[in-house]
Design goal:
Layout lengths: L1 H16 L14 E4 L2 H11 L4 E4 L14 H9 L2 E4 L8 H8 L4 E4 L7 E3 L2 E3 L6 H18 L4 H26 L8 E4 L5 H7 L2 E5 L13 H14 L3 E5 L5 H10 L2 E6 L14 H17 L3
Parallel strand pairs: 1-2, 1-3, 3-4, 7-8, 9-10
Antiparallel strand pairs: 5-6
Helix pairs in contact: 1-3, 1-4, 2-5, 3-4, 5-6, 6-10, 8-9
The structure holds zinc ion (ZN).
Length: 301
Amino acid sequence: MQKSIQLLLVGLLISLLTGCGNSAPVTSKTPTIITTFSVLADIAQQIAGDTATVTSLVPPNGDAHVFEPTPANGVALVNATTVIELGLGFEPWFADLYASSGSKATRIMASTEVTPLNAGAETDPHIWHDVTNVIIMAQNIRDGLITAMPSKKDTLTANAAAYIAQLQALDRDIQTQIASIPASQRKLVTSHDTFGYFAARYGFVIVGTGLGSVSTESSDPDATSLIRLITAIKTSGVPAIFVENMSNPKVMQQIAQEAGVTIAPPLYTDALGEANSSGATYIEMMRYNVRTIVTALTGTK
Ligand SMILES: [Zn+2]
């Protein structure tokens, strides 16, 4: 009930703020692209270049699984020419926000054509940790933006081609770096189940996760799950486990202490870092994550 009242308020506030749809024409303004989360914002910005302004609803270091939209987010959608979402259940709040805002923005689903993996009974939405999926996402975003801004087709096509070439190089570099970890040591423990696609692409085993879920909505693990995870960590022989930039590290710190392993520096998982951080862009985030994983699992740089 709280949620429906919240959305009703969003709708009312938008009507007030946008003058009940009688807003001034926006034809001369730079097109605005709104994405649900920061990883999509960076990919969209790389492709849009100077043809559009790109902003993200969920900020850097924010958690899209449990995001609570504000009336200002609804207003942003009304003023947007294009909105980009991931799909696969990653942003459970977005469809309602879009509908209640009355936005007429073109809607792009970035995960179209990506083959989803399951984690237990659920679809795993964390497709961006496999760089080959991001190449597909970049193609979807390019095609969607060309439909929304046909006069910018040449620029968008050229920007996307240059970005996809960088992504192909990134994928090769990750494989080279990962090769320095002996196969028997490619084991990951993270706060929540975010590295399924990374593991599948780059040859890792997921030993377990603190929350045991592909979402961060679940409550803290019970004692039985904790004991099982601690035992699995000890048996696996991993020297370190990982916390995430958008999650509370407390439970993982307790698990590490009990299992007698170290906590590696936080990985960028479901969100980029702030501008000027080592996770400011998708490519920087992936390079940082791989460096951090190699260092933590091998004790070298
Ligand atoms: Zn997640």
